[in-house]
From TrEMBL:
SMART domains the record matches: GGDEF
Name of the molecule in the record: diguanylate cyclase
PROSITE patterns from the UniProt entry: GGDEF
Keywords: Membrane, Transmembrane, Transmembrane helix
Native source species: Marinomonas colpomeniae
Catalytic activity as recorded in UniProt: 2 GTP = 3',3'-c-di-GMP + 2 diphosphate
The protein's Enzyme Commission number: 2.7.7.65
UniProt cross-references to InterPro entries, sorted A to Z: Diguanylate_Cyclase, GGDEF_dom, Nucleotide_cyclase, Rev_trsase/Diguanyl_cyclase
UniProt xrefs under Gene3D superfamilies: 3.30.70.270
């Protein structure tokens, strides 16, 4: 299994979170008795938390439950927060004001599910702290009134629920934004087709799916004498021609076909599960549709030349396929353009 740098970074970050939890719990166990005396069951809670955090640490370090390591690190963080909350006054603790931030952090670090789980854990803890509020003291041994405890618990629960909703909404918008940026990163800004990066990404995936019974065909498409259009009519007209040709090519291809702007006036079309013979018919359709139209407000006539090739069953790469198609394209140009030319090998 391939491990990316991002996976390694996430693994190290998760380990650091759990390590911080363990160190903090150890410090709390050793230092807390010097500051105040509270019921012995708080010590047992801290020892159980320490044992769980240690188990989590070795599970993550050994690489077990990799899919759950984010959830484990969030659970470890809760093991750190909740005991500190209990021994510092429950819902009346100053620490309680930070609780509504935790579901949002869980959404950003983990996701929607993690945010919901953490939120419900916190709400349950607040309810329990309210029910057993008369047994909870702060470090100064002050018992807070029931009325104040219930009031704070109510508003804490409301803000945590709001935090869960906001975390979900924020994550959704963040996902939409990152998807949009990803699409823009793979898209040619002029024609709205895939760019070379997007082509490379899709090409590799489609080539991996090919086999002897299901070949892949590729064609390189070049607009004939396009430089003359830019020279005589300007780049604005040239850009309009490129956009209109791109739309014709895209609309004429099948749903599962992939087309990208390869550079300048060149396009590449990938035809999955298509033999060279089948691709000839598609290529001729593209050539005919382009030649039947006129382009820009000047109604300029245009034609295209297409170089066509088919994937081989063994030792095939994207670069080899593109080179064969490019060689066929230049052969077609030398033969007079406005034609479909097949690769020889």
């Amino acid at each position: 299994m391939h491990i990316t740098k991002q996976d390694q970074l996430n693994h190290m970050l998760t380990l650091r979170i759990v390590e911080l939890t363990i160190v903090t719990l150890i410090c709390a166990i050793l230092i807390r008795p010097l500051l105040s005396e509270i019921h012995p069951y708080f010590l047992w809670i801290e020892l159980i938390d320490l044992a769980l955090a240690t188990v989590f640490y070795f599970i993550i370090r050994a690489g077990f439950l990799d899919k759950w390591k984010i959830s484990i690190s969030l659970t470890a963080s809760n093991l750190l927060i909740l005991p500190l909350l209990v021994i510092s006054g429950g819902v009346n603790s100053q620490l309680a004001f930070f609780l509504p931030l935790i579901p949002i952090m869980a959404a950003l670090i983990g996701g929607r599910l993690e945010s919901l789980v953490v939120g419900f854990i916190l709400i349950t803890a607040i309810i329990l702290a309210t029910v057993f509020g008369d047994s909870i003291m702060d470090l100064n041994d002050h018992i807070y009134s029931d009325e104040k405890t219930i009031s704070r618990s109510f508003w804490l629960i409301i803000t945590i629920v709001f935090s869960m909703i906001f975390g979900r909404f924020f994550l959704q918008k963040y996902t939409e934004l990152t998807d949009q940026l990803k699409d823009e990163n793979l898209q040619d800004p002029l024609t709205k087709l895939l760019n070379r990066r997007g082509l490379s990404l899709h090409f590799e995936k489609e080539l991996d799916k090919t086999n002897t019974d299901s070949p892949l065909s590729l064609m390189i498409i070049d607009i004939d004498y396009f430089k003359k259009i830019n020279d005589f009519h300007g780049h604005n007209i040239g850009d309009l021609c490129l956009i209109e040709v791109a739309n014709i090519l895209k609309n004429a291809l099948r749903k599962n076909d992939i087309i990208a702007r390869f550079g300048g006036e060149e396009f590449i079309a990938i035809l999955p599960k298509t033999s060279k013979i089948e691709a000839i018919t598609i290529a001729e359709t593209l050539r005919r549709k382009v030649s039947e139209n006129t382009y820009s407000e000047l109604e300029l006539p245009l034609t295209i030349t297409l170089g066509l090739t088919e994937s081989k069953p063994e030792n095939e790469t994207t670069l080899k396929i593109i080179k064969r198609a490019d060689k066929a394209l230049y052969k077609g140009k030398n033969k007079g353009r406005n034609r479909v030319e097949l690769s020889e090998d």
